[in-house]
Amino acid sequence: MIDHNAEPVRPIRALLRGLEALRALNGQDGMTVTEVAERARVPRTTAYRILETLCQGGFVIRDEMDDRYRPTLAVTNLAEGAQNEAWIREGAWPLIAALGKQILWPVGIWTLTGSDLILRAATDRTSPLALNRLTSGAHLDLFESGAGQVVQAFETSHKRNLLEEIGLHRQGHSSLKGQLEDIRTRGFAFDAKPIGGEINLAVPVLRPSAGDGPEVLAAVTVRFIRSALSDERAIGELLPKLLHLASDIRQAYLEFAPPAALAPRSSAGGRSPEYV
Q1: Is the overall model pTM greater than 0.70, yes or no?
Q2: Fewer CB within 10 Å of terminal CB in the chain, N or C?
Q3: What are residue 60's DSSP bridge partners?
């Protein structure tokens, strides 16, 4: 219980300065340390420390080409996180649960948070075929998972470039441009390698009001065991159902998403898949 008669809590000035720096960066096409210092009204050395700390946290990235700092998708996700709950809980989950009951393999929905995919809901608890019982909050690698690759493949070109920049900064990750183009053509992806003996088949769920190009709401997956089901059978038997689920969730988003989330958004390119 909060004691309203207690002495006021002293604010954490470093946190406030960091938020002020993010506010300065928001909506700008990159800013130098000096520009952020002037906008946030802090010394240049302080601005540099703030920006490098934000880089370490994944909220800002420094472009080595022009030495400017730019916010990452993690900043956008902070603002949109609260909006995601209703459409997943009330719109997507009943559809996911129904498909999971029908096919028995575990079905899940993943959304992008920073450079990770977070499991928002899944049928693992009731699936008799799940080897590993995943729960909400589980992570998938954005660059090696099928879900991560379909998210990148169907995103706007601006977000794809940001995500690729993050991937290139990670040791061992190379450009996925050619692979992502193939995924855009076929409309689905598998994990690069099995995880815990299981493999995910993934398709994207696109925002209904995608403006000039696609914008991904989530990825939906069905997880299966290759020793029990070949990739060819998964494509023939599970993929049509998963595509139908993605289409139904897209429509449910119109009903349950907050009005602000349905506003048209500008995008930098891409094409809408014909199957959704």
Answers
A1: no
A2: N
A3: 71
